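Researcher: Here's a chain I'd like modeled. Treat it as a single chain, no partners, no ligands.
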Amino acid sequence: MRGFVLYERGKTAIRDVKKPVCGESDIIIKVESAAICGGDVHFYNGTLDLGNYPIVMGHEFAGTIVEMGEKADPYWKLGDRVVSENTYSVCGRCPSCEKGNFVNCAKRRTMGCDENGAFTQYVKVPGELLAVYKNCMFRLPETISMEYAPLLEPASNAYMAVVQEGGLLPGENVVVFGAGALGIYSAQIAAIAGAANVIVVGMESDQATRFPCARKLGATHTIVNNPDVDLEKEIGKICGASGVALVIDAAGPPAVLKQAIQIVRNDGTIVRIGMNDRPLDMGLNIVNVKSVDIKGHMGYNTTSWRNVINLAATGKLDLKMMVTHKLPLTEIQKGFDLLKDQSAIKILIDPEK
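Model: Modeled as a single isolated chain. Structure tokens:
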């Protein structure tokens, strides 16, 4: 079978790869649809060193169960339409696993990073994982298209940040930094959860494609973040005395976190989704003075997935509007280039073409 392989830092190619072997308790999924994540772009560019080569990339996917070991969990059936989380293995014993936060397991291994991922035709879900983490997969309701089901993964990410970690209450104001997929999904989830104002802050390059999409999906305002804009003043005009209860940092640069601390109201919350390891060039006394809660974010849990699937199944969560391109696996590099220049939001990949 073919797979999109990262074989050195920042170097990729479509190559022949081995089909996974199904052990006695494993499940093999035929990948029907996959999507490119922003994290994948960092590996593609070489801005992040995966340190594990060669490997098939891709971790947002959905498909059909086509093979099961004789001792596989009988809950699952051949032919099941499923969407899978990207965890490959966890320890099952640490405090994070104990709480069901398997994504935070210090020994977690992931598809597309530590083990072969979904930019190919088949992936394996190990029986050892299924024994510990029973909800690492969900059956897809018939009302959710297989083609768009991979987007449940970033939507679950956003749900965790806005609702579970952000604690958003209906009627509160939200600011989202970053107009990529996680930023726009965060805006949509905030709107679904009843936010009064949802303000998406992005770059000049977001105005053509990403800002219009964000507004269609629930953003009440979009603002370009540049030196000519007094961001705190502009947001203050919109939110008034109630202020900003929640800031979602889906961008990552230290300058954004600094702005978030300034913008959020006293006793407010900042959830940091975006990643950037440059140092924060500011003192942190303001965090104490304002009693700001800053939360590091990584992934989702079973609650996130279950509720996002319910929202999508009932038509309350839109998975389609953010898709700007659909490409065959043979043209996947074109998809990465479109994401690099920000002319795309989400790109779906058909592994059979």
